[in-house]
């Protein structure tokens, strides 16, 4: 893989485009998109190109004044009346948007800032140092790569990611990169505590006992994805993350001030603001399934930008994926079902959900749609 004088990535033959070879050479470099940016390319490789329809409606073309709900958690545990108001706001946000932002959530700002800096330190290490973590073995608890499904997806995202599985069995400290070891450990502890609070509020919003979701083991498994989107020379041709829903129960996102996250609402892409001190929370496919469509899994994407890097940390609360859990079944909660509200989804085993998840990245159809009782699959 070489860079030409005009800043283009080139394989051995100029006249013939060998997509698989270009992808493999990129993957073998283990340098990620940051390596391309550092090399000074002016034209991004063709496998990063998205259809024009996928990248349309860039900032500036969207005249909507809509914004995702911002919810202040201050006083949550001290005032029962205020707690009820917060629960009502969360219920409305989950039903209408599948997204909301929270402030006064209990995670100190200095911890959040240091987490962003820790992710920056990792991704800006020398490539030769980072290579030891580069892998496509998703059984590893700590791995770094560019594009989780690079070889399967129709087009790549302008993004590198460090993945860390932090619960229920975190990796030994020595397996974590030293430059971000302490802050990943501390931040994950804080997010796990916040997750318990959020699951309580979600349960109350559905009229359930506050412990319902922890009792379903929804709050036990945490994967932390540390994204790095360097400046892109052709942001109009690609995306930082293509449109998708999250497969998890719940996601808590920390992002820096660069921006780029958008949520699809009323057929419009709505920019998510970078509110200081906030976290962005979104419902995942599994929560949509168990809530019997009461809560919606929000479709979202990340724009590529000519400035940056953009740094974000997505913390996913998901089901256990080990061998002992494959026969466990998830379906609509019985309290969510009645004659007026029959089940929208059938129950599915973890094995079935995993099988669906393995090719979810190829079509971007919300995972829950594969288990609809009527067999229809929505966009």
TrEMBL record:
<keyword id="KW-0223">Dioxygenase</keyword>
<dbReference type="InterPro" id="IPR027443">
    <property type="entry name" value="IPNS-like_sf"/>
</dbReference>
<dbReference type="Pfam" id="PF03171">
    <property type="entry name" value="2OG-FeII_Oxy"/>
</dbReference>
<dbReference type="GO" id="GO:0009805">
    <property type="term" value="P:coumarin biosynthetic process"/>
</dbReference>
<dbReference type="GO" id="GO:0046872">
    <property type="term" value="F:metal ion binding"/>
</dbReference>
<feature type="domain" description="Fe2OG dioxygenase">
    <location>
        <begin position="218"/>
        <end position="321"/>
    </location>
</feature>
<dbReference type="InterPro" id="IPR044861">
    <property type="entry name" value="IPNS-like_FE2OG_OXY"/>
</dbReference>
<keyword id="KW-0479">Metal-binding</keyword>
<comment type="similarity">
    <text>Belongs to the iron/ascorbate-dependent oxidoreductase family.</text>
</comment>
<dbReference type="GO" id="GO:0002238">
    <property type="term" value="P:response to molecule of fungal origin"/>
</dbReference>
<dbReference type="GO" id="GO:0016706">
    <property type="term" value="F:2-oxoglutarate-dependent dioxygenase activity"/>
</dbReference>
<dbReference type="Pfam" id="PF14226">
    <property type="entry name" value="DIOX_N"/>
</dbReference>
<dbReference type="InterPro" id="IPR005123">
    <property type="entry name" value="Oxoglu/Fe-dep_dioxygenase_dom"/>
</dbReference>
<dbReference type="GO" id="GO:0031418">
    <property type="term" value="F:L-ascorbic acid binding"/>
</dbReference>
<keyword id="KW-0408">Iron</keyword>
<protein>
    <submittedName>
        <fullName>2-oxoglutarate-dependent dioxygenase</fullName>
    </submittedName>
</protein>
<feature type="compositionally biased region" description="Basic and acidic residues">
    <location>
        <begin position="10"/>
        <end position="21"/>
    </location>
</feature>
<keyword id="KW-0560">Oxidoreductase</keyword>
<dbReference type="InterPro" id="IPR026992">
    <property type="entry name" value="DIOX_N"/>
</dbReference>
<feature type="region of interest" description="Disordered">
    <location>
        <begin position="1"/>
        <end position="21"/>
    </location>
</feature>
<keyword id="KW-0847">Vitamin C</keyword>
């Amino acid at each position: 893989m070489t860079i030409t004088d005009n800043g283009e990535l080139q394989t051995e033959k100029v006249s013939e485009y060998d997509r698989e070879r270009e992808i493999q050479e990129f993957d073998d470099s283990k340098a990620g998109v940051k390596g391309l940016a550092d090399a000074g390319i002016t034209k991004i490789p063709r496998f990063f190109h998205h259809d024009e329809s996928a990248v349309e409606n860039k900032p500036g073309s969207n005249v909507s004044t809509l914004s995702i709900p911002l919810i202040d958690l201050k006083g949550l545990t001290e005032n029962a009346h205020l707690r009820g108001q917060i629960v009502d706001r969360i219920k409305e946000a989950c039903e209408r948007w599948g997204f909301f932002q929270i402030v006064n959530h209990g995670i100190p700002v200095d911890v959040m800032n240091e987490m962003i800096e820790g992710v920056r330190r990792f991704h800006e290490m020398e490539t030769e140092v980072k290579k030891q973590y580069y892998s496509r073995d998703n059984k590893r608890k700590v791995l770094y790569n560019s594009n989780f499904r690079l070889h399967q997806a129709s087009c790549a995202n302008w993004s590198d990611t460090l993945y860390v599985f932090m619960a229920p069995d975190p990796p030994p400290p020595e397996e974590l990169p030293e430059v971000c070891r302490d802050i990943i450990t501390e931040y994950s502890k804080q997010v796990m505590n916040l997750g318990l609070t959020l699951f309580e509020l979600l349960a109350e919003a559905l009229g359930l006992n506050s412990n319902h979701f922890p009792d379903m083991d929804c709050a036990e498994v945490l994967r932390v994805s540390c994204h790095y989107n360097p400046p892109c020379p052709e942001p109009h041709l690609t995306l930082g993350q293509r449109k998708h829903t999250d497969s998890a129960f719940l996601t808590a996102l920390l992002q820096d001030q660069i921006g780029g996250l958008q949520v699809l609402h009323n057929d419009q892409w709505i920019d998510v603001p970078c509110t200081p001190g906030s976290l962005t929370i979104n419902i995942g496919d599994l929560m949509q399934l168990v809530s019997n469509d009461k809560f919606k899994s929000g479709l979202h994407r990340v724009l590529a930008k000519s400035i940056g890097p953009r740094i974000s940390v997505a913390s996913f609360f998901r089901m256990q994926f080990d061998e002992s859990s494959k026969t466990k079944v998830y379906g609509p909660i019985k309290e969510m079902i009645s004659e007026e509200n029959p089940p929208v989804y059938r129950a599915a085993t973890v094995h079935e959900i995993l099988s669906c998840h393995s090719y979810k990245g190829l079509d971007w159809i919300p995972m829950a749609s594969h288990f609809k009782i009527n067999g229809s699959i929505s966009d």
